[in-house]
Specification:
By secondary structure, the chain is an all-alpha fold. The chain contains 13 helices and no strands. It is 67% helix and 0% strand. The longest helix has 29 residues.
Length: 364
């Protein structure tokens, strides 16, 4: 069953990306070229719509023939965010209006009863109050959704980072014996949706990497994927759910590791913009992927390199966490020391990668 969703979504997404590229092109709905653009050819922002329609088609099949379920509030929230992105692609919605609408969508998502109600030992905090949980969950929703949107600056980057996330989360769900997704949405359904997104992203990346008839994800796609990823993260961090990695890696740590590039790059850019006196919401060319492009990397090489580095941080963080967890330093020092030590070592590794790949000049 699961392989069925992967294959059908990949075929559907490939077809829809080609069809919508022609549809947009005939109506001259091309991505505008400006000073920040990384392209000078005619490109359509139809990738997000193709992914959305692929999800709708596969959900229809699953609902009709396999009785798959979906959380209604999460569906409404994701569709609302996608609608914001769709209008932004066509009319360039002002960032204040877009941000306000995203807050509304985040509130809807929290009504699904899937939100962050436990820090799982990070900073020595476990269960948190409901009001605090709502506020933190809304903040995390805005951060994740916009971080995926912000890194969508070169070909393939958001697609590859998202693909990595859904591949890892699919493995976690598949090997988890208990129902990782409580609240009426079963494990089989969520695994099917995760695999559907993998197939949809594969179909998109085929066209995103093309030199002719290229397709961009657009705000429609990046915001949609970001909101779906947020729902998966909320499900992982909710205390009522259990996942197979609980005995090896802290849930908060693995959630950050799954999105390490968009989160760190967004934080870095916001800090740099604030230091220079600019609004953190106004676009520029301060992202790490821009550093690689300016140093001579092609879009393909830059996006693949970042994806590989992101995977290396995930594997390194998992290994370090497992090693320190087995040593159990907390029993001899203080509760939570294992988590603190893991985070510090991961940060040191990331700093090494930054100076190794992003801050040094490459030979021409």
């Amino acid at each position: 069953m699961f392989l069925f969703f992967l294959i059908v979504s990949a075929i559907t997404s490939t077809f829809l990306n080609g069809y919508l590229q022609d549809f947009y092109s005939k109506r001259k709905l091309f991505d505008p070229v400006n000073i920040r653009s990384s392209h000078n050819e005619k490109v359509t922002r139809s990738g997000g719509l193709a992914i959305f329609l692929t999800l709708c088609f596969c959900y229809g099949l699953g609902r009709a023939f396999l009785d798959l379920d979906i959380n209604l509030f999460s569906l409404i929230a994701c569709c609302f965010v996608a609608l914001i992105g769709f209008f932004d692609d066509l009319f360039d919605v002002y960032y204040v209006e877009k941000f306000a609408l995203q807050i509304f969508a985040g509130i809807i998502l929290i009504q699904s009863d899937v939100y962050i109600n436990n820090f799982h030992g990070i900073f020595g905090i476990y269960e948190i109050s409901q009001l605090t949980a709502y506020i933190i969950s809304l903040f995390v929703f805005l951060v994740i959704t916009n971080s995926l949107n912000l890194i969508d600056g070169i070909d393939g980057l958001t697609g590859l980072i998202s693909l990595k996330f859904f591949v890892v989360i699919s493995v976690i769900i598949y090997f988890t014996d208990t129902n990782i997704y409580a609240f009426s949405v079963n494990k089989e359904s969520m695994l099917s949706y995760s695999l559907t997104l993998i197939g949809a992203l594969i179909g998109f990346l085929i066209f995103n990497y093309k030199s002719e008839k290229k397709v961009f994800l657009g705000d429609f796609g990046s915001l949609l994927i970001g909101s779906v990823i947020t729902y998966f993260i909320f499900s992982i961090l909710h205390s009522n759910n259990q996942i197979i990695t609980d005995n090896w890696v802290n849930r908060s740590v693995i959630s950050v590791l799954l999105l390490i590039y968009p989160l760190t790059d967004t934080l870095r850019v916001y800090i740099l913009r604030a230091k220079s006196g600019n609004s953190p919401f106004l676009p520029d060319r301060r992202h790490l992927h821009h550093k690689l492009i300016d140093k001579g990397y092609s879009h393909v090489k830059a996006s693949i390199l970042i994806a590989l580095l992101s995977i290396s941080v995930l594997i390194f963080g998992f290994g370090i966490s497992l090693l320190i967890w087995n040593i159990d330093l907390s029993s001899s020092l203080f509760e939570g020391f294992n988590i603190v030590a893991t985070i510090l070592i991961i940060i040191a590794y990331m700093i090494f990668l930054y100076y190794k790949f992003f801050d040094l000049e490459i030979s021409k």
